[in-house]
């Protein structure tokens, strides 16, 4: 066999030996050629979409941190519209960036650098340049910076590639946010799926939890965990209603037992259905990283503003057609606010539709409640449901005088039983034909609504069943004692009989409620305002809102509000066991709280798991808070009353804190109310007029008589960018001194001008609360009448039927002359910003009479009708 490498070496040596001559002399031959340098092949560019952010110390947006994202760990969306680039990042943090180049080329993005860029605002003209980058609820009121588009590529009108660098300073700070954006539309990087199988070392519940009946939930809380309070909570289908609703990758799970628990589970972006496995490093459901999934659990009005943890989906089944989840087993661990203490839990759920149906009723009167489950004395209702029964879904519920109110009566010729505690039961029975009163005996073969049972406002579809009245007594025609048993066979949505619901009632009139008061063990982690956020004395209402809280204003970076008698109108009224609160400030808020129904007064302590329903649990109480033109359909809250004082039955002092979860969502509204009847402070009067405050240009105004001078910025909807002067020579002036909505001093002026294009103008001024006459001075933070904060006053201007939905501004009264109680001379300056936008309407006016006329009253009536029409229009939106 020939050794090819050795052969090649020999040939090479022979050729090399023939290249030189014999020894000693020089030889003329072909010169050696220089080596050929191979061409440089550039490395293949990594075509990966990525976002890199670097925040300087002191930067209010990035908080001095560095961030990096790719499609393997975040959802990144990049799009363009004309000369505007929009970037959305949804990772462990969420960011929004907008870059608009401005200039004359507005069809597409172009390579180049844009300097001295101001903050981008929605609706900005295409010819203007703008830049914004914000996230995590943090944004700038103003900013400047630059950005450079280093590369951009389109295919047709579709953006396919772009590279951008930027720098942005927020609110005048020197510290900046720096960023680099690289986007390739053809980047196919995918995030990793859940880890399967899950690590064996992860927490599991005790083995006996799996022996629970039907669907179940088990929660185990460390000491120091706020949601679980360091306790163990166990529920199954016999002690709670466990419901799961949602779509194929988003589930809302409620466990309604001794307390209401709510979980939100979010699957991974890119998967059509939930995947079994381990989901590490997740955040709360409202601000979760979509490529990782998310989960939040709240309980009895306690929740996390921010949470981290993990989830394991041990098994999941989805319908092959709808993809909706039909069964799931999951475990989780949740840490609130970055604390080490954890809440761990397991949830097992299978759709009741998968359970076998029950075909027929049992023999009339054959069912009795287990004797061991019933109390020795007092009123009670014992309810027992089959696991597949569609109304109570396997629930066993015992209500007594210590947990519920009882009502038994004969109404509209039907027996009506209402038991209201943690659940609200209603049982209604029709009499036998010819009966004038219900009597002891069997009521069998009940159909077509002869027997109806409802739970929490929901009833069965076309039930059938039986009732046995074991004893019944009347006094003066009213039922005073009743013992009965019943059975109802319910139908599921398909109309199939699917389970039995049984109940047994023992009731005697005159049995008083025996509800326990609030817990004196207040959770140490229950929210307090941070030091310095509230005044040390006097009345106040302080509110904080999470980013995901429905009552908060997601369009504003402001998450807290402080109201005192000096900046708002606070009204607190309380008698007996309830109190109502109303705040009229920069926003309008209202709330109500009621203690247990058997309490004669509010007591100090912790009230957990309160709802806002009209049929609230009377053994716990009720709480509701709304405002900012919003309210909760349903809410679960916790309240701590730290101090309360009465004079007789009248509330005179209250210090309370609360946490409310709208629609049982994770993000709450939290608040503290301190109120004393003796604090009678009211807003102070107007401030001194600033020396540099705007006024009409010198020489532009008459020396006397009625006039209005207005100067309107471009973009102002009222003045439409014009500067005009109206005087007695070309305009009729009509004044009104009568406020339509309250008794604070008021001056309204309507003008009908003969000048081309001016026509009808209207303005109104109103003082802060308590002032019966205008005082000279500066009135700031005035809003549109009648929606103003009465602590500051109001200002409204409109022209030719065009007004502001909302407005903010100031006015200064330079002169106000009264004869007795009647205003006879008024001189003022003003500035109004419609919809809180930058363009303003400024004006200066003088009014010297004449006396009010009948025509003025007609004009005033017209103004009132217009105002009512505007309020109706706004309320309908």
Provide structural commentary.
- The protein is mostly beta strands and 877 residues long.
- The chain has a 10-stranded mixed beta sheet, with no helix packed on it. Strands 12-11-20-19-18-16 form a 6-stranded antiparallel beta sheet, with no helix packed on it. A 6-stranded antiparallel beta sheet has the order 22-21-31-30-29-26, with no helix packed on it.
- It is globular, with a radius of gyration of 37 Å.
Structure keywords:
877 residues; mainly beta; 10-stranded mixed beta sheet; 6-stranded antiparallel beta sheet; 2 helices; 4% helix; 45% strand; globular; disordered N terminus; disordered C terminus
Category from helices, strands and their pairing = mainly beta
Strand arrangement across the biggest beta sheet: 2-1-10-9-8-6-7-5-4-3
Provide a count of the helices. 2
Strand elements, count: 51
Shape: globular
Q: Please give the alpha-carbon distance between the first and last residues.
A: 95 Å
Low-confidence stretches: 1-32, 853-877
Mean pLDDT: 88
Largest sheet: 10 strands, mixed
Portion in strands: over 45%
Computed over alpha carbons, the radius of gyration is 37 Å
Helix content range of the residues, please?
under 10%
